[in-house]
Write a structure and sequence with these properties.
By secondary structure, the chain is of the alpha/beta class. It folds into 2 domains: 3-273, Carbon-nitrogen hydrolase (Nitrilase/N-carbamoyl-D-aminoacid amidohydrolase, 4-Layer Sandwich), CATH 3.60.110.10; 295-487 and 542-546, HUPs (Rossmann fold, 3-Layer(aba) Sandwich). It is built from 19 helices and 20 strands. α1 (18-34) links the parallel β1 (3-10) and β2. The longest helix is centred in the last third of the chain and has 22 residues, at 401-422. The protein is elongated, with a radius of gyration of 27 Å. In the C-terminal section; belongs to the NAD synthetase family. Belongs to the NAD synthetase family. It holds the Pfam family NAD_synthase.
Length: 574
């Protein structure tokens, strides 16, 4: 029985922190050696962080990354390390280096480059054209990078035909709702179809709007989970793989034998023989499988991770939030406390003459429950002065949305004043429903350095608040029940101006994420006039969304990198 001990280093790299990432990689190599691992694999582009975007256009960045991979190689002794980096051979490649005893033994270049959604790899990288197989004492191990494994016809198929018992796939696979299950289902299919084990290591952490969920996993040739890492946390996953057992399984199944009979070896297959002896194992590592999260737990964890890393990686410490007593600011403040600690979160109440007594009470109760420092800065007198100064120009004009937006912009000014004075970053509190239809004030409640709920629909905001309260009730119950309102004029409610959020969110989802036409949305049972109203609002507010702060992506089609609509655009659905 030949047991290979593999370690998957699920690390949180920071884009551009070449030295810091390198030190972390070396630390994990040493940790894996302490556990007698034979191979340690790191995420895709672990040295540079993912995605490095236009840093890849800087020769100095590429060269520094190459220096780092040689430094890591020097530390990889008596263990095989597979590390994601940027290779340079005339062009540049998304690559995986195989390191052993101080040397770079071989380099694999990613074959399939994603160029959809949030991915722009064709903009930067040349595509690899070889398939790598490591030969260790006669046992064969395939290597691949992220997108390589997603295609039905992929390098893994050839590696299995060539005799691989195990394939190691290194990744930077960003999170969105449903992605974890989708990914694991795909890996089970690949393992079963090719009669191999798959060790899948994923990046973890936040990078601007992207969040990487970790959930690194080892799958057996029957599709079973052999080991699974933590979600949204760094982790070192250890798994013992019986290579002989996999080979015996392959011998008893005709599928690979039949494929081999028809297979003609291509020149692009590169087999690398490693001078390495698999360590004798006296004790088998106990199976470790982390429990799956519920959807609400997943999303909430993604928001915490995205906020925490954006603040810390950009060298901020404290955040400030305008507290209205509503659901969005309440949830934003709660996430901020969970991510950063109560001592790093400041709340500001900015009541006007239209702010209800209940809203002030709810904001203060929330602050008390969270234990955050809170300031009250009334805006009524400032608003009166604005109106007084504008009166000569506004002579003969009736009050309208202008006066409502003035209140929001006064609040934005106050928040930015606190930000400038104390170095606190302002967290915008708007959600995806509002951003979609432009139900927000530019330079007012849209002000901020980061938007936690930017990709969270209003209905989901309520679900997340209820989930968080199920852990410990911090958001006042009245906030969960009262009609949402901007409170910019007497009797105002959001749903009277828009639609009930349950209906609104469905229309937005179909139009924004599924590209379904107004006609087809109406055919699904929605009022045609309401559908047209919402679509017009979405179309005309692209200019606002472009000026909104960056926020955490949790859906398959967030505003920004995913959905890229021109601002100047004469095409209309209706």
């Amino acid at each position: 029985m030949k047991i290979l001990r593999i370690a998957l280093a699920q690390i949180n790299s920071t884009v551009g922190d070449l030295e810091g990432n390198t030190e972390k990689i070396i630390k994990y190599i040493k940790k894996a050696k302490e556990h007698e691992a034979d191979i340690i694999a790191f995420p895709e582009l672990a040295v540079t962080g993912y995605p490095p975007e236009d840093l890849l256009l800087k020769p100095s960045f590429i060269n520094k990354n190459l220096q780092c991979i040689h430094k890591i190689a020097a530390e990889s002794k008596n263990i095989i390390s597979i590390v994601g980096f940027v290779d340079k051979v005339e062009d540049i490649y998304n690559a995986a280096a195989v390191l052993l005893d101080g040397s770079i033994v071989t380099v694999y270049h990613k074959n399939f480059l994603p160029n959809y959604g949030v991915f722009d790899e064709v903009r930067y990288f040349q595509r690899g054209n070889e398939i790598a197989i490591l030969n260790i004492q006669g046992y064969k191990i395939g290597m691949s990078i992220c997108e390589d494994i997603w295609y039905p016809e992929n390098p893994i198929n050839i590696q299995a035909i060539e005799g691989a018992e195990l394939v190691i796939n290194i990744n930077a696979s960003p999170y969105h709702v449903g992605k974890v299950k989708e990914r694991e289902d795909m890996l089970r299919v690949r393992a079963r179809d090719n009669l191999i084990s798959i060790a899948y290591v994923n990046l973890v952490g936040g990078q601007d709007e992207l969040v990487f969920d970790g959930n690194s996993i080892v799958i057996g040739p029957d599709g079973s989970v052999l080991s699974k890492g933590k979600a949204f946390e760094e982790d070192l996953i250890l798994c013992d793989i019986d290579l002989d057992a996999i080979f015996r399984k392959q011998l008893k199944d005709n599928r690979l034998r039949n494929l081999r009979a028809m297979y003609k070896r291509e020149e692009k297959v590169k087999e690398i023989f490693l001078d390495y002896k698999i360590k004798d194992k006296f004790e088998i590592i106990p199976q470790k499988i982390e429990l799956d999260m519920t959807e609400a737990q997943e999303i909430y964890s993604a928001l915490i991770t995205g906020l925490r890393d954006y603040i810390h990686k950009n060298n901020f410490e404290k955040v400030v939030i305008g507290l209205s007593g509503g659901i969005d600011s309440s949830l934003t403040a709660t996430i901020a406390v969970d991510a950063l600690g109560k001592e790093n979160v400041k709340g500001v109440l900015m009541p006007s003459q239209y702010t209800s007594k209940e809203s002030i009470e709810d904001a203060l109760e929330l602050s008390k429950n969270l234990g955050i420092e809170t300031f009250t800065l009334p805006i009524s007198d400032i608003f009166t002065e604005y109106i007084k100064e504008l009166k000569p120009v506004f002579e003969g004009c009736n009050p309208d949305v202008t006066e409502e937006n003035l209140q929001a912009r006064i609040r934005g000014n106050l928040l930015m004043a606190l930000s400038n004075k104390f170095g606190w970053i302002v967290l915008a509190t708007g959600n995806k429903s509002e951003m979609s239809v432009g139900y927000a004030t530019l330079y007012g409640d849209m002000v901020g350095g980061f938007a936690v709920l930017k990709d969270v629909y209003k209905t989901k905001v309520y679900e997340l608040a209820q989930y968080r309260n199920s852990i410990s009730p911090v958001i006042p119950e009245r906030v969960l029940k009262k009609p949402p309102s901007a409170e910019l004029r007497p009797g105002q409610t959001d749903e009277e101006e828009l639609l009930p959020y349950v209906i609104l969110d469905e229309i937005i989802y179909m139009y924004v994420e599924e590209d379904i036409s107004a006609e087809d949305i109406a055919k699904r049972g929605f009022d045609r006039e309401s559908v047209e109203k919402i679509i017009k609002m979405i179309d005309k507010n692209e200019y606002k969304r472009r000026q909104a702060p960056v926020g955490i992506r949790i859906t398959p089609r967030g505003f920004g990198k995913d959905r890229r609509m021109p601002i100047t655009n004469k095409y209309r659905e209706i």
